Amino acid sequence: TAYTAAREYLIASLDSLPGEIWLQHYELAFTLHKELADVEYLKGNFARSEVLIEITLSQAKSALEKAEIYNMLIVQYTLTAKYSEAIQAGLKALSLLGINLPQEDLPAAVMVELAEAKSNLANKEIACLINQDKMKDGDKKIALKLLGNMGPLTFFSSQELWKLTVVKAINLSLKYGFVAEGSYCYSCYGIILSAILGDYKSAFEFGKLAIQLSETSNNLSQNCQDSVIFANYLSCWVKHIKTTNAINSEGYKVGLQSGNLQWTGYNRMFQTMTLFYQGINLEDVLSEISNFMLVCQKTKNQWAADIISANKLAVLSLIGQDDEISEAQHVETFYQHKSMAAICEYHVLKSQILYMYEKPNEALEWAILSLDIINYIMGHISSSHHNFYYSLILTAVYPTASESQQKQYLETLAANQQQMKIWADNCTENFLHKYLLVEAEIARINGRGEGAIDLYDKAIESARENEFIQNEALANELAAKFWLIKGKEDFAQIYMKKAHYGYQLWGALGKVNDLEEKYPQLLSKTPTAAPIKETVNHKVTLKNTNSSFTTTNSAVALDLATVMKASQAISGEILLGGLLNKLIKIVIENAGAQKGFFILNREGKLLIEAAKAVESSEVDVRQSTPADCNSQLPMSVINYVARTHENVVLNNAATEATFATDYYIQLHQPKSVLCAPLINQGKLIGIVYLENNLTTSAFTSDRIEILSILCSQAAISIENALLYDNLQQANEQLEDYSRTLEVKVEERTQELKEKNDQLEQTLQQLRTAQKQIIAQEKLASLGALTAGIAHEIRNPLNFVNNFAAISIDLTQDLEEEIENQSEHLEAEAVEYIKEILSDISQNVAEISRQGQRTQNIVEGMLMHARSDSGQRQLSDVNTILAEAVQLVYHGKRAKDVTFNITLETNYDNTIGLVEVVTQDISRAFINIINNACYAVADKKNVMGENFTPKLAISTLNRINIVEIRIRDNGKGITEEIREKIFHPFFTTKPTGEGTGLGLSLTHDIIVGQHQGQIQLESEIGAFTEFIILLPKKAVSI
Description:
Elements: H1 2-16, H2 21-24, H3 26-42, H4 46-59, H5 63-79, H6 83-96, H7 106-121, H8 138-155, H9 159-176, H10 183-196, H11 200-216, H12 220-234, H13 244-258, H14 261-278, H15 282-298, H16 302-319, H17 327-336, H18 340-356, H19 360-371, H20 382-397, H21 403-426, H22 428-445, H23 449-465, H24 469-485, H25 489-506, H26 509-518, H27 520-523, H28 529-535, E1 539-542, E2 549-552, H29 560-571, H30 576-591, E3 595-602, E4 605-613, E5 620-626, H31 635-644, E6 648-650, H32 663-668, E7 672-680, E8 683-692, H33 701-820, H34 827-865, E9 873-875, H35 877-895, E10 902-906, E11 914-916, H36 918-943, E12 950-958, E13 961-968, H37 975-978, H38 998-1009, E14 1013-1019, E15 1023-1031
Helix pairs in contact: 1-3, 3-4, 4-5, 5-6, 5-8, 6-8, 7-9, 8-9, 9-10, 10-11, 10-12, 11-12, 12-13, 12-14, 13-14, 14-15, 14-16, 15-16, 16-17, 16-18, 18-19, 18-20, 19-20, 20-21, 20-22, 21-22, 22-23, 22-24, 23-24, 24-25, 25-26, 29-33, 30-33, 33-34, 35-36, 36-38
């Protein structure tokens, strides 16, 4: 190959250099060693390449040269799964260029860089960034290369460091100009915008910009990288996932051309996942996996190979096959390589497989395990896949869960669906059917059956329209189970058959067999099920290795997709008129007839209810004409089918002896005739009669088989429609009767109702007014009292406190003087004076303590009375909360050295800055944390060493609000106390230990000042938890 030849030339060049080559021919030696290391890398000889890199690095003179060599080392380490070494190499290289990335407090550093990026991008259109000047600074060019190569390994090992490298690269590019390698940072910035900030449209635009920049600079290697990110992290949130195929195909091509083995492997890795999520036939996916795995093995891209293996395990499970390597061995390999993304993908797919094979409790365990490492697939469509199946799993286990678990599950479902709705709003094609299916399952577990039916059908329709065959099959399966629970086995059979067919199309034969074993009663009733299974050869398949897709069918196989579509259209209609209209059109079209009739059996009478000819667009519906009075039908054929319940197929009716004497046949000489019964549960529902007078033998076996399937569905749908029709008529009669009764009742009760409404309204107004008066009286009393205190108590109180302090000093002085004069006084007198002075000291100390307590009450009341404490400013809530914890903890320790507490914190670093009055919100946190510490200390005093005080503090980013939870494991709070806990002056602490103003002040700060919410949850003897919801931005009121 060209690489082999290049290697031989480079080795020959090095051998030809005389003497000390590094001393005498430094630049040439540097270049030859560097190029040879690169060629060894391209040939997959990583060990040799690494040795050459180490030699070159030890001889390199300038910081720029060393940084360039470190850049090669990062790629080497990444491919050989030496991730920590790769990160350290990158940090060293950046340090050589004067860029020192912090090792601690990375979220704060990210926030600083993000703020700078926002400032640099201010008033700039994304598309216009392509016109920025080119970068000239050599150090910054290498820095961008380093930051770019650190991207993949930090993304899958240290999310905060990855964010920092991305935004740092963005700022370098915006400040110093564009360089080809810098396009990667724009792609990754798109991931931050979509996955973290939820701005999917802007993220998509940054992805397009990155590809344009790499194309403009004709940098094929960089184009490969940008294509991977654009296709697999940005495009799928706004475009159908199928559009990624062409992007991945082009990215793979340019990756091979440029020799970018690392990203070529990533390209194949992501394409594996994309094919699976698209619903491509699983046999074809498995075939592509084998091809993709060869690419990764050849390039020794272990990371990509591990993720492909995780997907392969899922595909094999669905197909019903085993791998030559056990699942446990695969997973062990993932952990050995520290391939966290592969482990996460494996967990996600494992939960899906277990759910599909009806093992929801096991599936839930794997779905929950995924939550701890879900960031390793952040921004990829796999995260939405986890959301989808996690929600379905929760609905599956919900009925058997405890009451507390059910409450938790519903909360998780609501959060998941909120996110899924955002995705669906941005890309209907990929996510709407998932949102609708989970909504259907939620409606089911909440007892909203009618709503669930409609949602199942909408989910099926959306999945079919957007060609997600696997999810269409899943939605049909869940709808079937819904009807089965309701005892409607006929309805369940319709949906389960469609699920069965859909899984066949997908190639999930393991799942198909599982359905047949678990639901034989639903999949064996229809006589067409067996031949369909034998003849179906319809599947979505790969056209070529570049992953373009098409649909192929066997020439003799059933057009199963058409049957499913027609069957779905039939089952979705409940009104008899509309159903007959659809039926006659569908049957004529699929059977190849010129005209057709639908005849219904009404109490033993055969009535024509629908008729249509191909040349006319009109359908005659609901004529209810007796069939034996119509001159357009061969009644001998109709009566035969009605009596025997058998099909009649006449390839040339005029020449076939059985019905040759029929008047209609003699008169009109029809050619092809097909007459079939509509049977449901052994009962004749109706008859369909079809004719084709253009050709003989028009109704082939294939068409007859299609018609049999449609007739099976039609019989059920017509009977349902008839029942619904009868129910409608009964309802109308009942409504007519009840309407007259209702008028009388309404007339007699209207006056009473009006009076009751007036009384209820008056009572409600009185209750509201009473609450307002009580609140206003309290506030008024507090205001007046505070004003009085400010003018009447403060000065005398200061006097008392000051003179108490002076009195303490005087007694001490007097004690010292008496001690000095003791030899001149009688011993008894000295002792007596000392006792008096001791009593005075104790009394004065008590006066001082009570005076200080009164001073604290006064200050608390003054603070409570004022309306606002300062201006809002952008602040880090996590920092404020952490500082409040430390203040309270050290304050408690200062008073009591034995005080200790186990602190558990979980701060959400994605929250960002929030508009708050920093000093006041800190005061609110301190009040709650202080009470929590008091509660656990009080419980500790009672229970002793058997009790460990704990304080759990967490924050959560919830779109427009921040959720703060402060939880202690103290004694808990009774329901009676909860109702009063935010009232001014209310306290449960002993006299002298609380003013009763802390939580009242906290409530005013959070609810009144910041328009937030504060909630309280508690269980006696177990815990108390305050939940604070703060708007991120000031709310105008």
